[in-house]
From TrEMBL:
<dbReference type="Pfam" id="PF00583">
    <property type="entry name" value="Acetyltransf_1"/>
</dbReference>
<dbReference type="InterPro" id="IPR000182">
    <property type="entry name" value="GNAT_dom"/>
</dbReference>
<protein>
    <recommendedName>
        <fullName>N-acetyltransferase domain-containing protein</fullName>
    </recommendedName>
</protein>
<dbReference type="GO" id="GO:0016747">
    <property type="term" value="F:acyltransferase activity, transferring groups other than amino-acyl groups"/>
</dbReference>
<dbReference type="InterPro" id="IPR016181">
    <property type="entry name" value="Acyl_CoA_acyltransferase"/>
</dbReference>
<feature type="domain" description="N-acetyltransferase">
    <location>
        <begin position="15"/>
        <end position="193"/>
    </location>
</feature>
<dbReference type="InterPro" id="IPR052810">
    <property type="entry name" value="Plant_NAT"/>
</dbReference>
Length: 426
């Protein structure tokens, strides 16, 4: 996510922008991250809640699984580029990555791939905002995107993050593009009963790849390197849900040739081993109320109390990606898969499970979530390349949204700070 730290530039700053050096810059980057905690205007003081992200000592954890990635830092001019002294101070940072994804498809579902760049984690220290630092970081990152052959660049933020939207649309040439929703559900202390109306099977990565390339061939942002995503150590498996009683002999090719009337699929990504989240600055009453639900759930799990996990201490996240399906029963089967993922997260010690879906996603109705924990996101996009290489598709920035979107990289959301009384359960 791009935080409000990236405000509209008003004055030019003499900051120098350069590539991140892990040995030299880690301490300064961690300090900027602390200063720019999500939802906070001053580090979480004054009873204001904020979402703190602990990157577990790896500032590159959110991008290092991409084929090409880069992190840039902005520092005071006294310590620019090759200096390394003179009281240099890191005052901003940005991360970016480039990969090939589907940008549209023909009626025959033939995928059209393009190189797309993603900007994330833009931060500017509070004392240096509104001076052009954020814009300078973005422009320098776009130069690297072009060198890597990216045709488009996009960013994601919450729809109500006016500062980020203003920076990118008014100052950096981006346009509003897609409005997916981040759906979040807490992990209870009690396990959820498996659905009796669904059978769930685990697919091997090669079989999951075949299914995904068949079903998501024309879905926006579907990655060309889905095989690498599925085989990554952080990917905990792909699960296929079928109506109870449906025979399954493990033959994916037979499934693709004659799929059942309804089915659903999703994969689980372990964010817990990459970063942890923590809601800070919560009122004591909220902490006490959440703790009470956990105590009751632990003492009497048979009551199935919708307990609120301890979001006020570092907690982990499992992200559900590759969510899809077909047929009238697909939403119901998705719900069964989400229950299965919840129990996986419970065993793994996570606090929440989350997914991100398009506004028109057909199986969205089957995803259990608490609205107070989620967010309505906004993706903005910019064309970097000259000319058009997509035939009938033309300029992707002007293409109407499809029903689905493929999201394989989660981003912490400040909406988790709104944790409150349960409003919807599995």
């Amino acid at each position: 996510m791009v935080e409000a730290a990236a405000a509209v530039a008003e004055e030019e700053h003499d900051a120098a922008v350069r590539e991140y050096d892990d040995v030299r810059d880690r301490g300064g980057v961690e300090e900027v991250e602390r200063e720019c905690e999500v939802g906070s205007s001053g580090g979480g003081g004054g009873g204001q809640m904020c979402l703190f992200t602990d990157l577990l000592g790896d500032p590159l954890c959110r991008i290092r699984n991409s084929p090409d990635f880069l992190m840039l830092v902005a520092e005071t001019a006294t310590g620019s580029a090759g200096g390394g002294g003179g009281g240099a101070e890191i005052i901003g940072l940005v991360r970016g990555c480039v990969k090939s994804v589907v940008c549209g498809g023909s009626h025959s579902k033939d995928p059209i791939y393009t190189k797309v760049a993603y900007i994330l984690g833009l931060r500017v220290s509070p004392n240096h905002r509104r001076k052009g630092v954020g814009r300078k970081l973005v422009e320098r990152m776009e130069q690297w995107f072009r060198q890597k052959g990216a045709e488009y660049s996009y960013m994601a933020t919450e729809q109500d993050n006016e500062a980020s939207v203003r920076l990118f649309t008014s100052r950096c040439g981006y346009s509003k593009f897609r409005t997916p929703s981040l759906l979040v559900h807490p992990v209870f202390r009690h396990a959820l009963k498996p659905s009796r109306r669904a059978s769930i099977v685990r697919l091997e990565p090669r079989d999951a790849e075949r299914l995904y390339r068949w079903h998501f061939a024309a879905v926006e942002f579907f990655p060309a390197d889905i095989d690498a995503v599925l085989s990554n150590a952080l990917s905990l498996g792909t699960f296929l849900a079928l109506p109870a009683g449906t025979s399954w002999d493990g033959d994916v090719e037979a499934f693709l040739a004659a799929p059942p009337a309804s089915w659903a699929v999703l994969s689980v990504w372990n964010c817990m081993d990459a970063f942890r989240l923590e809601v800070r600055g919560a009122p004591r009453l909220m902490r006490a109320a959440a703790g009470a639900t956990r105590l009751v759930d632990r003492a009497a799990p048979w009551l199935r109390i919708p307990s609120i996990p301890n979001l006020f201490a570092p907690f982990g996240l499992y992200f559900l990606y590759g969510l899809g399906g077909a047929g009238p029963g697909a939403p119901r089967l998705v719900r069964a898969l989400c229950r299965h993922a919840h129990n996986m997260a419970r065993r793994g010690g996570c606090g929440v499970v989350a997914t991100e879906v398009a506004a028109l996603e057909p199986v969205r109705a089957g995803v259990p979530h608490w609205p107070r924990l989620g967010a309505e996101d906004l993706w903005c996009i910019k064309r970097l390349a000259d000319g058009y290489n997509h035939g009938l598709l033309g300029d992707w920035t002007k293409a109407p949204p499809g029903r689905s979107i493929f999201v394989d990289r989660p981003a912490p959301s400040r909406a988790l700070c709104r944790a409150s009384v349960p409003s919807r359960t599995f």
